[in-house]
User: What shape does this take?
Amino acid sequence: MALFDNKKPFSYDVIREGDDVILSVNLEDYHHIPSIEDDPIVMSKACDMLTEVKDATKIVFIQKRNYEYDYSQTSLLNEIAGLYRKLVKRKDVFSYTALLSDTTCTRWTNAWYSDVQGIISNLLRSDPIGAYVELIRIIRDEKISSEKSLDSAFLKCSNKYVGILDYIIKLFEKTKLISLAKPYIAGHKVGDRAIYRKFFTSIIRPDFMFAKIMATFPHDGKELDSYTVNEDIEITVFELPDTVQYLYHMVPPEFKLTEEKYEILDSARKIMSEHKPKRSEFIDPERMRQVFFNVGSDLIDELAAQKGVNMTSAELEQLTHILVRYTVGFGLIEVLLQDERVQDITVNNQIGETPMFIVHQDFGDCKTNIIPTATEAESWATKLRLISGRPLDEANPILDTELNVTGANARVAAVGEPLNPYGLAYAFRRHRDKPWTLPLFMDNKMISPLAAGLLSFLVDGSRTLLVAGTRSAGKTSLLGSLLVEIMRKYRVITIEDTLELPTVSLRKLGYNIQPMKVAAAMTKGSAEVPAEEGIRTTLRMGDSALIVGEIRSKEALALYEAMRIGALANVVAGTIHGDSPYGVFDRVVNDLQVPRTSFKATDIIIVANPIKSPDGLHKWRRVTQITEVRKHWENDPLLENGFVDLMKYDSRTDQLEPTDELINGESEILKSIAGNVKEWAGSWDAIWDNILLRAKIKETLLKATKKAKMPNLLEADFIVQANDEFHKISDNINQEVGNLDSKRIFFDWNEWLKTAIKKKNMK
Assistant: This one.
């Protein structure tokens, strides 16, 4: 049978999907938004349908947007429908004849019967809480009348009537809806629908979308923050009363369109979906999206003309972007990625029942008001296979790749059966559009100015550095900020299995940078080059800094080979999982089978770890250690003092503090750097002075940015300029006076900074 053979409003079909029995109600010609909570007609009709379909688990009202009420909400109405069925069947109690059984009560029966039938036949289904309140009022009034009356016949009949009312009230109170409503009933007036919004909220989905969204705000939520993204995405963060988890509530632009525009989008999507992109088209996703945008724009313009809808160029562009999102794009995932404060997005099973979750920059872990569907999850899997060229099947249940969309990019991890026995699950880690910088990390207290100065010195000193930490510690972001510290005159080669480092942005800033993509450690049968071969290849590609995205497997041996030969005398850096220097040693030597002697090629280990508040509700990213690896130990660097902390996190000051070893010049690595520089050789004071100079410059830049209220000055494009100026000024003064005079360097650099800020203010 075709869906909705009967096109009249409130005709319905029963759809069975797994364990769900869905009551699908046609309201395409209903001239109001279908809302159980706001519309008594919709509530009444829903109860009527539930008296016929007793096992329904979901109600979906079909318009240009679909309005879905889940199992818990449907069960509330199911109980009301069951109560209605029960009361209607009790002819022995509620019929007119039953009330006339005692002829002495005839004088009052008509009024009583009218009251009871009005509540049962009409009010119960459209306003059950109002019906309950009305029953309470009637019985109260009846008892008052009985107390004032001296008529024994009336008292006898009234007591019988009150007994009937008491029976009905007790039946009402057995329903969950009335139990939940009792705390809010005081002062409630019959017909006031506000109370229903506490218990009923539809999940809304336009026809052209797959994902569902809970559009209304939580009635008992406390608003913590609200802001807009790209001027048309509304974000509100709520604190909820019964959980420590916050709600991230998003209203995307596609939920604020007119019905005419919904119709156009739905028609356009149906037409566009007939074209199935080939694998070859996904080789260049950006170009494919542009092609779809151009075709979609023409199509929407044509459909709008056919329907007599006038649209501005801005409206046409908005609809086209939405259309692309729901054809070759990733739907609401793309909208979430537009929010720079969103760091991670997770989609768990069971998909279709569980909302997405995010990690927010300011509020940590939050659940969202978005529920993806199984259809959508399968669509993502297909697109990720095509984009990455990597398999995702039972033989390869893990897929790591990257996702680049307009305004954002992310690392994606997808898992399927048999690793995930319930189907598909996803994790999206958002990366900033622009590279992180050391001053940006100073601004959010991840590092101190002195730490930034020390790291800058180490990068210029061409050391081998490992950025370690736990998951979500910010390792890759910190490694990206070190890339910004490499002078643009040097060539940089990056190696990653999933492209996360900001190579594209750095290339636009003038860097001589070559990214290389290698096979993921867990990918089987791939045509991609193994990571260890990729690293060895870089050694044949000329004088280059070598940056490895993450050290996970066999590539560790090749990386340490590169470290031992100094990667042709330039900086070598990478990230690795480990919560301490010894944790890094244990992983590299014991897990990845790198010889102990090779591990000595590591110069510096930078450890980043999340710091939690005492209540466990909040956490912040911090660099907790900057440690040098000395070379004199034989078996165990921990027992033989092979690890020397240069800086260590102090929870009392909430920042990295220098150790005595650093202050007193007992760093072998820093002395080694100085040994290659004529002006620093044998002079710890000169080394320390230069580190302090770099720290002062970065701190001055941060303060100037705040004073000028120009946060963009902390971004990579300006930081690269500032670093270039620092090096040029240092060189000029060194040539002029024969040494790196810190005071003169800082003065000249600070004058340049003032001039640069003035120029930007004039634009």
